[in-house]
Amino acid sequence: MRDPSRLPTSPGFWRSPLRGTWFTSVLGLVLLVGITVLFVTGLVSYAAYNPDLSPVNDMTPDKGVLGFYLFAWPSGPVWLYRFTQGLHVTLGVTLVPVLLAKLWSVVPKLFTLPPARSVTHALERISLLLLVGGGLFEFTTGVLNVQLDYVFPGSFYPLHFYGAWVFFAAFLAHAALKTPTALRAVRHRVRDESELAAPCPDAPTVSRRGALGLVGGGSLLLFLTTVGQSLGGPFRRTALLAPHGTADPGGGPNGFQINKTAAYAGVTAADTHEDNWRLVVTGRTGTVRLSRARLLQLPLHSASLPIACVEGWSTADQWWHGVRLRDLAALVGYDGDPPDVLVESLQSHGAFRRAALRANQVADGRSLLALYVNGEELSPDHGHPARIIVPAAPGVLNTKWVARLTFGDL
User: Fold this and answer.
1) Which GO MF terms does the UniProt record name (predicted)?
2) Most exposed residue of 103, 325, 332, 406, measured as fewest CB within 10 angstroms of its CB?
């Protein structure tokens, strides 16, 4: 017969002297705050795409009641999406050691027999399974997406979106059951740790405070090697674990981060040559076709705006120069308040070849069809001959290689 003490279902199998109510409670309270912020900033990121505006913006169809909170995304302050998504990604990476330590601290409970001693205990076990599975899924898919190495079947957007709701529902149930106990344990240094503490612990090699210090040190290291992608400037060189976290590509006025190159998007020099390219603008009074030379004859305006991406990276403010979107709307019959606009790109494949912008974004005087950046013509990889730049919008809505603008109801 196999020795029962060697099975995970036996309390004697788990020998670490670190496990205990206080240790688990400290980690749990950190996650209580951190995961709540992650969930809220994730919902905010989804709202920033204005998914209710047009199907082309909605990467998670059939969201149903889960989209109850959606609101029209504002166009200011200009750093809004840069801050919220930078916080979401940086905090998510920073919390990885805390999450892993928390899961390690409670893993014996996953093997406890009998599976359910009461209704409350059954609910706790179910929430724990969903919490563990959901937490690992959300953090894993998020980190892979940040690293641009997404390998899960299916689109990241709906999987991460729906997974977040399942995970957070389990998280709320678990928090409701365990937060009072965790607060008492931290406040009074609870000694009765029979549920989590090993009955026959091995000799300690590090104290629980020391273990928390190691977890905190790991989180601090991840923070320092990630946050630079959002802060920019010299800090970008410290973002060793983040995409676009090294030195800015190239040099000169166009020497800043690129998410999608012209070659990747299938945009050729022939497509953007001034003899071939025309901007088609459609609206209430019909359609006009504008060459780049004709665009340069229109009133030109400037705006200092960053680009912020869903992966958490962002650029410093760049100086953009071009035609205001509301002036282009006026060319096709919208002299007053401009309407929504559908923007279409020359890119031949990839997501967000088309994107919709709300009327408030079009009306903002800083929203441009940019022709220049930092005093120089846009490079091919930055969207030559023309690109959208809108304050506070996710980077993918700042469409490059613009071919058509359709103003009106979408």
Assistant:
1) oxidoreductase activity
2) 103
Copy the structure tokens of residue 246.
């090294």
User: What is the C-alpha separation between 180 and 184, in angstroms, rounded?
Assistant: 6
Q: Give DSSP secondary structure letters for 356-379.
A: EE-HHHHHSTT-EEEEEETTEEPP
Q: Are 235 and 59 in contact (CB under 8 A)?
A: no
Q: Let me know the angle formed at the C-alpha of 38 by 107 and 240, rounded to the nearest 5 degrees.
A: 90
Can you give the pLDDT at residue 63? 84
Task: Return d(Cα 70, Cα 96) in angstroms, integer.
Answer: 28
* Dihedral (CA of 159, 71, 354, 393) sign: negative
The three-point CA angle 113-117-121 to 5° equals 100
Which residues in the chain are classed under CATH 3.90.420.10?
Answer: 262-407
Q: Is 356:57 a contact under the CB 8 Å cutoff?
A: yes
The bridge status of strand 402-407 relative to strand 301-305 is unpaired
In this structure, which topology does domain 262-407 adopt according to CATH? Answer: Sulfite Oxidase; Chain A, domain 2 (3.90.420)
Q: Contact 261/381 with Cβ under 8 angstroms? A: yes
Dist CA 82 CA 319 (whole Å): 16
State CA 342 to chain mean position distance: 23
Tell me, what's the pLDDT at 158?
87
Other C-beta atoms closer than 10 Å to the C-beta of 263 total 10
Among candidate residues 161, 169, 168, the one with its CA nearest the CA of residue 49: 161
Tokens of residue 261, six digits: 């190159």
Q: From the first residue on, what is the mean pLDDT of each consecutive set of 10 residues in the chain (410 residues)?
A: 64 82 91 96 95 88 86 94 95 96 87 80 78 90 78 81 91 86 79 66 87 96 90 79 60 86 93 94 96 96 95 91 98 93 93 94 97 96 96 96 93
Distant-in-sequence, close-in-space partners of 382: CB < 8 Å, separation ≥ 6: 254, 258, 373, 400
406 φ, ψ (degrees, to nearest 5): -115, 110
